[in-house]
Amino acid sequence: MKNTVKGGMQLADPLYKFVNIDPELKEHVFTNPAFSDDIERAREIYNLGLVRHFFESARHSKWEHHLGTNHLISEAKQLSTYLSNEEFRLLKYLNIFSCFGYFPLGYCSSEAVILAALRDDAFKKSLIDSYLQPLFDLANKHASSYGRDQLEVTPDLLIDRYQYKALNAWFGAYKLGKHVDHLPKKLWKNELCYQLLSERSKIKKAYYDLATLEYLQRDLFYTQIVTFNIPIQRAIQDHRKQFINPAYTELISALRATITQEVYTHPGYLTLETLIKNNIANHLVDKSLSIDDLLTKSDSWLEEQLDVREFIKHVRSGSLVLRESILVDSDKISSSDANARTRYDAAKRFRNPENSDNDGYVISPVVEMRSHGATRTKWRSAGYVVYALNKPNLPILIEDIWKLAAIYENTKRSSGDGINSILHRFCREILEYAFRNGVNISYDKLFMTMRDQYKASGIPNNLNVLLRDIKNAHSENHNVISRTRLDPPYIFQGKSFAFLLEYIFFGGVGSDGTNRLLTVLRDEVPKLRGTGQNWNGELLEYKVFLYLYDRFASDDAVVCPSVKLVNMYGDITHEVDFIVICKKANQNIILVECTTSDGDEKNHNDAKKLVELENIIKNRFQSAGVKILIIGPEEKKDNFGDLCNEYILIKDIN
User: Fold this and answer.
1) Are residues 55 and 157 in the same domain?
2) Which segments of 289-334 does DSSP mark as H helices, in order?
């Protein structure tokens, strides 16, 4: 540190070389003994919190980040007329007190505070009455006195809407009230409190823009995902209505998507954060930890209190089960998707990880709002990670997978993206976790056969009527259905016909379309004619496909046809005709093999391979109910002995 000519100070920084502090901030904050504890504490709170346990170099502090933001504010003041000089002055103090308002472990603790308030009415009342409501009343009184807009977000709404990322600003305002006498007399202190709590003011928007520019560069630099310096002279636009140059919004969005994927949603980190925030919430409710502790202590103190090292060992020995992230354009949600907000809220607090040791896994939701592109289109990212700490309890995991799919299925359906329902994707990822192999599932095998036959003979009338009914019902607001032309030759171009049937059958337009298509397939599959050497075996698989859908209700089971397990070299290690994943007790995974007139030795070997897979599944999960089902001719029944749990005759499924 060194003093500058104009009475300020200059601090070394790895991103900007030097950060200049103006004389006013130096006098009233940086060298003021009243703020020395807050500054020292900010130096001891890591900007990425628990991330450093997975990215060793990510040890930069909140204080570094906010010094960097102060630097960008000073640069922006020279480049933009978006704010007045007094507004830029308020912005500098807003940045400093936002930093002072962080809890140790950052947003992890903030979310824990919201969780504790949602779980316990007594804690919620204490939080509101002692901390939040006085700030809200002061800010609104100031707004009334000067003809400003009242704050829209009350303390109750802050909690109910799960706005944990706003808490550092609210508690920054709380710290402001404690130190108000140490600030410059001419600083508009009540206005600063109002700006800290406001969500829509120009000053707050400018703060978000500059803080985003800063943390993206700093977090990317310290995690070494990519090093990138955004040229501030070009990114800041000299315009009264907009702060960031529109040309840079897409770049910022791309950088944010990169670090979100690689760092902020790292599976191990998310799992650790879920366990720790739940632990903090419990301590807040039972009063072994207080808000005052969170306002005065550092990361190392809190981690020692919670014995975070033991959690870290536990998480590092675990492995990923599945990971999903769905982007939804908030401006284009279908009118039929009325429960979008409900799913958005449910995803944030889907599962209490109290039973993670017994269940063997943790579900960590990740939900955020973000803007994308120069048009500032709003996207909502709703995602989660399922992470195994030891052997997952398979029946409970399958129940949770069904619940997770229900949260997002309607959003996916309304946007019309993809072929298979999201539940099928989750089940495939469970199989990949079970077998530690890639899993290929040939959903379109039957539909490709139908395409090839109907290309010459024409689409049967009952199927044609079904497709046109679906198009009439869904084409206006459905991406997949609207772009499908049903008239030959368009319907047969590429894989269009097979794609459309697959999409409908696997839940793309809801249960009604799927059930009607299933009825048509029962009539049409027996009429198919093949030319291959093994046509009888292929036709049997198609009939078994329909039989399994009749036997296992689609609400309770997922039927995966033609499953191939693929190792890291791309070699197929196992093939299974069907795998059914089921919610029924003691019958979670059903391995199905179809056999016709193949040699006895081959049939026997195929069955033994299913037994191998059964043992693999039972070794990977606890309480796994695995069943082997063989479908074949009567004369082969005795060949399988105790290699299967059930043998069904071909004649009984025709």
Assistant:
1) yes
2) 291-296, 299-306, 308-316
Confirm if 220 and 255 have CB atoms less than 8 A apart. Answer: yes
Q: Given CA atoms 216, 221, 227, 229 in this order, what sign does their dihedral have?
A: positive
Q: What is the mean pLDDT of residues 462-471?
A: 92
Averaged over 133-148, what is the pLDDT? 91
Where residue 408 sits, what CATH number does that domain have?
3.30.300
- Residue 281: in which H helix or E strand, if any? helix 267-285
Indicate whether 375 pLDDT > 60.
no
Q: 494 is written with which tokens?
A: 């590429």
- Separation of alpha carbons 7 and 20, rounded Å: 11
Residue 166 CB neighbours (<10 A): 17
Q: Which residue has the tokens 């009264």?
A: 240
Above pLDDT 90, what percent of the chain? 45
Q: Return the sign of the alpha-carbon dihedral for residues 134, 137, 143, 145.
A: negative
Phi/psi-derived region of residue 7, left when phi > 0, alpha when psi is between -120 and 50, beta in every other case: left
What SS3 state is found at 580?
strand
Consecutive H or E run containing 179: helix 167-179
HEC profile of 491-502: HHCCCHHHHHHH
- Residue 180: give the domain boundaries: 2-264
The token pair at 133 is 């409501």
Q: Are residues 15 and 132 in the same domain?
A: yes
Task: Please tell me the total count of domains within the chain.
Answer: 3
Assign 394 a pLDDT band (cuts: 50, 70, 90).
Answer: very high
User: Which residues, including other chains, have CB under 8 Å from residue 177's CB and lie 6 or more apart?
Assistant: 134, 135, 138, 193
Pairwise CA distance, residues 383 & 366, whole Å: 5
Give the integer Cα–Cα distance in Å for 31 and 182.
11
Residues 6+ positions from 499 with CB-CB distance below 8 Å: 419, 444, 447
Q: Which helix (H) or strand (E) holds 255?
A: helix 246-259
Do both 472 and 394 map to the same domain?
Answer: no
Instruction: State the Cα–Cα distance between residues 333 and 472, nearest whole angstrom.
Output: 20
Domain co-membership, 333 together with 255: no
pTM of the entire structure? 0.86
